[in-house]
Design brief:
The complex is a heterodimer of chains A (114) and B (111). Chain A starts with a strand and ends with a strand. In chain A, the strands form two sheets. In chain A, strands 2, 4, 5, 6, 9, 10 and 11 form a seven-stranded mixed β-sheet that branches. In chain A, strands 1-3-8-7 form a four-stranded antiparallel β-sheet, with no helix packed on it. Chain A is built from no helices and eleven strands. In chain A, β4 and β5 form a beta hairpin. Helices cover 0% and strands 51% of the residues of chain A. By secondary structure, chain A is mainly β. Chain B is mostly beta strands. Chain B has no helices and eleven strands. Chain B is globular and about 45 Å long. The chains are: A mainly beta (114), B mainly beta (111). Chains A and B meet through β4, β5, β9 and β10 of A and β5 and β10 of B.
Chain lengths: 114, 111
């Protein structure tokens, strides 16, 4: 069974603090993605990766960095968190060039920046 | 770049009603068009895929079709149940493999 896990599941941070969200996948997919979900905006792509060592900017990368140290792990880093980054963050893995082009999503991380 | 427009923010139906959700898209490539469903407290999961080759996908009683002429694809179900209450997203995967999602449609089905 395909599996994507995220940690932490909930996080409260202070403005100006550093936040790291972690994602692990056991699907052996090359591609991984970070999204944020906000009411009225749907899912917006922050960063993605084609494989270990690669990161690409998505549609809303400002204020975020990403790291892909291995096939299995993909992190999202907020160096200086702001209240506007309060959101639910989803990680996904996938093989978009494959037959199905499906992404498998994790359960999400709810981040609150005070 | 690629774009997807999903205008229906919320749809409220009664059980056994007909469901129709529409998306329009813009891309310069030959896209794969998908529908995802998200239940409360969970991440989205794939419901259906439609390719520009087969024009149609069917799963769990849902049907998705594609119209190249109007660059639109829609999701329909003949008779919804309360358990279908969820958020439905349309999505496009273009030639660069970067997915683009619509804003989502929240479906509420009353018993």
């Amino acid at each position: 069974e395909a599996a994507v896990t995220q940690s932490p599941r909930n996080k409260v941070a202070v403005t100006g603090g550093k936040v790291t969200l972690s994602c692990n996948q056991t699907n052996n997919h090359n591609n991984m993605y970070w999204y944020r979900q906000d009411t009225g905006h749907g899912l917006r792509l922050i960063h993605y990766s084609y494989g270990a060592g690669s990161t690409e900017k998505g549609d809303i990368p400002d204020g975020y960095k990403a790291s892909r140290p291995s096939q299995e792990n993909f992190s999202l880093i907020l160096e200086l968190a702001t209240p506007s980054q309060t959101s639910v963050y989803f990680c996904a893995s996938g093989d978009p060039g494959g037959v199905v082009a499906e992404q498998f999503f994790g359960p999400g991380t709810r981040l609150t920046v005070l | 770049g690629d774009s997807v427009t999903q205008k229906q923010g919320q749809v409220t139906l009664s059980e056994d009603d007909f469901l129709f959700i529409n998306c329009t898209y813009s891309t310069t490539t030959y896209p794969t068009l998908l529908w995802y469903v998200q239940y409360p407290g969970q991440g989205p999961q794939l419901l259906l895929k439609v390719t520009t080759a087969n024009n149609k996908g069917i799963s769990r009683g849902f049907e998705a079709t594609y119209d190249k002429g109007t660059t639109s694809f829609h999701l329909q179900k003949a008779s919804v149940q309360e358990s279908d209450s969820a958020v439905y997203f349309c999505a496009l995967v273009g030639g660069n493999y970067k997915p683009t999602f619509g804003k989502g449609t929240s479906l509420v089905v009353h018993p």
